[in-house]
Amino acid sequence: MLRLALVFLLLTAGTAHALPVKVSCRVPGVHDADVIRVVHAVGLSRGVSDKVMLAGFEAGWVESHMNNLDCGDADSLGVFQQRPSMGWGAPEQIMDVSYAAGRFFEYAVRVDRPDLSAGRLADAVQRSCCPERYDQAEARAGSMLRQAWQGGPEVAGGVYVVEDGDVWADGVRLSTSGVFVGRPSVAGRFVFARTARGEVVALVDGAWRPVASGVAGDPEAVLRPDGTVDLYAVLADGSVAKMSDPLEMIGMGGGSPQGAGESVSIPKRQAASWQSVSPAGFATGKPSVIAYPDGSAAVYVRSGTKLMAAAAGTWRELAQGLDASPEAVLRPDGTVGIYTLIDGRLNRLTTTWEPLGEGRFIDTVSAQADGTVYARTAEGKVLKAG
Question: Could you tell me which residue, 44 or 12, shows the higher pLDDT?
């Protein structure tokens, strides 16, 4: 009965304005980069559809310009201007972006119908006075979504990043398709990146060529001593998988990735020949792999909050406390340096996790053999962090 009463209360909630009308409630003209990443992460964790995710971003823009406002019309608060008096939660809960996003997505999934656009779905949740405003925000919401998908940097003879759906290297745009997400991976002269649909493509001879599908995280491309490339990724089932010499099936080219600009065209196809190296449900995020001169390799992944490493097929736990993917690098003396972000701050593994500064970053870091570490802020800047 209580759940039914809550549903009725939300359905009959008072209407919300498109942005607060109180003069005293100042709304920034731009979104908060941290807020869009949290809303996006909550949607991903709940497995919402693309339409529901877009509805969340359209609602967030219309209601608050995707900012966590401590003010609003009547008792409205937060990203979605939810009202405690209308059953959305206590004020302190609504001001928790994760909680607010979870409530929005929970209700959006419940009221979604095939005939609703993302904007009309947003209005079905928000009960706005201005239902047309949500669909009008589609372009802005799509841009914020692409930014939310941006990952950490790859520093390998240049700084490679995904920005607004495309891969860039040192300010040079390498694609024009707007489909890429996460962090690119560079192996020799080849660039690998994934799309929002879980496909991996490679930049070869100035063109993006399909390699594989079915991935749930960013790829890790590793140049082996014999000049071939191995590809690692966490698949949709949570297993860590390896693909040996994926360039053989697409044809190895001799061109440099710099200056490439052709759009990617990815046909519908089954995943290529992934070889699982862990059980399903084992890992999340991006693997980090070290290729040794003798041809052997060590794989490092995040499994829950644990740092797990595999050599010769055997997994062992190295540390705990992770909330981001690890980055392993082979030092000149043959030892391994391991870095990660914990609560957005750079940490290095010694006998325990050792914080390296107070800067806050997103996604993954890129570590160099000399101990230099690069990381990316929520605003998209790549900084030398160690």
Answer: 44
Q: Is 62 left (phi over 0), alpha (psi -120 to 50) or beta?
A: alpha
Radius of gyration of the chain (CA): 22
Tokens 């706005």 identify what position? 128
- Separation of CA 229 from chain center: 24
- Stretch 337-341: mean pLDDT, rounded? 97
Contact indicator for 157, 90 with CB cutoff of 8 Å? no
Q: Do the beta carbons of residue 370 and residue 342 sit within 8 Å?
A: no
- Yes or no: say if 63 and 80 are a contact pair by the CB < 8 Å rule: yes
**Cα–Cα distance between 375 and 323 in angstroms, integer?**
15
Which alpha helices (H) appear in the chain, and where do they start and end? Answer: 2-11, 33-45, 50-64, 91-94, 97-111, 118-126, 132-136, 138-148, 247-250
Kindly tell me if the per-residue pLDDT of 332 is higher than 70. yes
Average pLDDT over residues 371-382: 93
Rounded to whole angstroms, the Cα distance separating 239 from 261 reads 33
**Separation between Cα atoms, residue 222 and residue 291, nearest integer Å:** 7
Kindly report the number of other CB atoms within 10 A of residue 98's CB atom. 13
% of the chain beyond a pLDDT of 70: 88
Alpha carbon 353 to chain centroid, angstroms: 23
* Dist CA 158 CA 344 (whole Å): 23
CA separation for the pair 353, 361 (Å, rounded): 16
Local confidence band at 250 (pLDDT 50, 70, 90 cut-offs): low
